Amino acid sequence: MKEANEPSKVVSLGSRQDSAERIGDLLGAVRAIAGRRLQLLLGNMFEHVDDALFDLAEKAENNAAQMHYFDGMREVRKRRPMVERSFLAQVSRELTGLSARTAPATAVPPPAGPLELSLVAENELEESLAITSMISKNESRLARDLFAVNQRLSVICGGIKIDESTNPVAPAALAQAFRQAMRELTAEMRVKLIIYKLFDRYVLSTLEELYQEINTELVRAGVLPQLRHEVVRGDASAGATAAPTAAGNKAVVDAVAGDTDKEAELASELLHTVRALFSARRAQSGGVAASAGAAGVVGHGAAIAVPTANELLGALSVLQSQLATGPLPSADAVDPAVLSRDVAQLKEHLLGQLGALRGERPGQVSAIDEDTIDLVGMLFEFILADSTLPAEMQVLLARLQIPYLKAAILDRRLFAHRQHPARRLLDGLAELAKGWSQESDRDHRVYEKIKSIVECLLHDFDDDMSLFERLGGELQAFHEQSRKRAELAEQRVAESARGREKLELARRRAAREILDRIGSQTLPPLIHGVLARAWANHLVLTILRQGEDSPAFAEALRFVNEFIASARPVHGDEDRRSLLRMLPGIERALRRGLANVAFQESDIERLLGQLHAYYRQQLGESAPDTSTEDGVLPIPDSIQPLLDTESREPEPESFPPTPATVDDGELSQIEQLKPGSWLEFCPTGDAVTRAKLSWISPMSGRYLFVNRRGLKVGDYAPHELAAALAAGSARILPSEPLFDRAMGAIVDRLSQAAASGTGDLP
What we know:
Layout: E1 2-3, H1 16-58, H2 63-97, H3 122-141, H4 143-156, H5 171-181, H6 189-202, H7 208-220, E2 229-230, H8 246-256, H9 261-285, E3 296-299, E4 302-305, H10 309-325, H11 336-344, H12 346-358, H13 367-385, H14 391-398, H15 401-410, H16 421-434, H17 445-460, H18 466-518, H19 525-546, H20 551-565, H21 573-596, H22 601-618, H23 640-644, H24 664-671, E5 678-681, E6 689-696, E7 703-706, E8 712-716, H25 718-727, E9 730-732, H26 738-756
Antiparallel strand pairs: 1-2, 3-4, 5-6, 5-9, 6-7, 7-8
């Protein structure tokens, strides 16, 4: 930060006595402003604590967790006045104490600095990370207004240095004061972390008005009224970073503007947490590169300057050109452990290349560059360990480590914004690669597209960040083209499955209706055969064409009742007259129904002839007809395709024997699957198939899976999938973007290292 070189009117403090009174008056005014505003902000925050804890209690996974939140609500209500008094009193004491500081040489550091993470308890680590994250985020965001407050407080306090670490109303001091006040609460850490989140949202995130009011009051009192300043952002590389082209800047800005507030906040907090953990690791390992502002290090008796960003980019460009001209290794020939080791050793290769360019090898890089190198390295280590990606795709994407390290040095926002073009490009490549297999990519279109983007970045990327935007656009267009082509195949597969299911359900309904009406009766073979075969098919077609609620279906069922009734023995004149009344209607219905299922006219006449003979025998007019062996007319060839439709469909792939019982957890996972989810199947123990859930049947609940080309892989009932998950013959592939999963894994890894107290990564 630097002040403008123009004269500023500074308040005159006069004599020592006048000076003391003046300092007291001005600090009193600042203290009053801070006390009033902070009391309002803190009160507003506590008004939201109850709602937040109640919502979490309602969504708790079990009764025990729910009780923790309810206990936390009661504890907060009981202790809130004490927390508020403690916090406000501490801020007031710190502001009052500023007047006692007369020497600028030694500023007293605040208790437990924001990055002091040498902790022994997991709870304390979580608490420190929460505090550190919100301090870092808000110091960066409030830098301009806070700088002015610091400068004006320095003037009224006699010239002592006031900065972000010693200003009682700066985010660091306020966060530490609130942490101290929170000791009044005995609630669980999960409850405290929620309260810290709300403190960040309702207090620290609204400090602009406090700083503006303080600045306005001090300007009115004549303290540095002409003050102007420029803020050098902490995520810039001390002015040494090579500037991207104008087109590159615009591409990044346009894309970043698309971040939603919520996503931007979460990504920023995550990045601040990672940086805090890197600082903790350096502190625990006793590294000498902890200061981002260090100008150099001592080695071999002479000072060796820390490499600038331009030097790093130059060395990386040399390494990149060597990688670009080298042959592409095959996945079968590469040992994943060796590839991962090479990724982890990039820092050493970089320092060696810097030494070759300089003539002397630097021992280290600045802290912010070291963090960036380590973060990119851990990202690509995650890619190489991520079983979501096929091995061939891991080999391809691992070659992007150097271009992405250059991009991260050029633009520190790469890890902070989810919509950054470079980040979106890598996520898009990983998403395309997730469903890749040699079987589904026989024409090599997908593999060649990913390979071409990787090679383009290796050969062409220097400092023009717009290249990521352009390649991302090409990848998106390829995605869309592939998706449209696959959707047509998917629709055909889904329609085929839907048709088979409708046919199967119609058959079951027809059979159930007939069997329910027959009940325990024993029908003559001729009557039973007509109902079970020809008329059952007529019912099926009526359901499919006109629906179960149609008059035609109701009429077809009435025929079943009459046809069954016609088979009852005739014992008297009344039975005889009843049967004679039914026969004309039975004949008319049969003619229509048999024609509906493609009976030829000759076949219909033949069947009716058999029925006439049967009914004459029923009426006592003739002996039984034995023109066929079983008294049943064979189904003609013309309707056989209807009966064989399903048998001609390919059977879905079968899983090996699975456990008889399925855990509720697996069933719950299956129920949460949505179309578009990817699974990996390994039913035979060695042949691996990746498939996307394309359709869930609303009729049978079966899950239909297709490959990336939209071709059917299989369809399974929910319990079959759950059993496959339990047996390990299927697994659900993560749906979250690669970058998000990698950042979460990196935080977990660094947190474990911080908790161990050694700084060593697991």
